[in-house]
Amino acid sequence: MAEMKLDPMEMLLRLTGDLSAVRGRLQTLEDENLPATLEGLDTKVGQLKESLAAVVEAVGQLMADPEEEPPPEWPGTTPNWTDDLDQDQARELWDGLTEWCQNTLWPIYARPVWRPCWYLHKRLVIELTALWRNYEWSYEDKAPPTRVSEWHARWWPHVEKVLEKELSTCGMPRDGLPKPRHPVPVPVQPTMENENPPPPPFTESDFVDHRFFERVEKDIARRREPEGDDT
């Protein structure tokens, strides 16, 4: 087969066409300002990386140190003795109220107006429960000092008057009451026949009288059994 010879003129035309095509492509890239476009893309990618890093850091902080919830405005509603309490709820309420009254209210504030029969006065029990819950609210973490001041200036003086009124018909016979509602027994004085008479079951200076536990157990027993209690 005979060799095919390339025409120099044809080769020149081809090279000229290729060169023109390359120039056209370069011109297109220059017109599109490719370097600036690439630089802009690089900037956007950098910004996205920074944003992603900030999000990752924030999520890590939340997982490591969760934000504390703000303190509640109230430690729960004041328990209502007239509600349908079950036996467990009633016992918990009696225990909490009695402990606070005996350890805080009675020795520090209420001893001058206190009577051992206080628990027999329904209104008084309700008022003391509200006073107790208000006291706890006043001393909660991060509570402003004004709450404590308000308790001493407003809530306790109110209940103190309630105590005086509710217990005004209870007391010692020597108080001048013809028929005291819940009298405190007068100690029997020793005599020659009985030099060591038994002490009374309770005195005016006691926190509760001798019937307290019996009455509390009766109040608890009359209420409904807790749900899910098979006993």
In what range is the share of β-strand residues?
under 5%
* Mean pLDDT rating: 81
In whole angstroms, the N-to-C terminal distance is 114 Å
SSE order: HHHHHH
- Structural class estimated from helices and strands: mainly alpha
Shape descriptor: rod-shaped
Number of helices: 6
Q: Helix coverage percent of residues?
A: 55-70%
What Rg is obtained from the alpha carbons, in whole angstroms? 44 Å
Largest sheet: none
Tell how many strands the DSSP assignment holds.
Answer: 0
Uncertain residue segments? none
Task: Tell me what the structure shows.
The chain contains six helices and no strands. It is mainly α and 231 residues long. It starts with 7 loop residues before the first helix and ends in a 10-residue tail after the last helix. It has helices at residues 8-31, 34-64, 87-110, 122-138, 145-166, 212-221. The chain is rod-shaped and about 155 Å long. The longest helix is centred in the N-terminal third of the chain and has 31 residues, at 34-64.
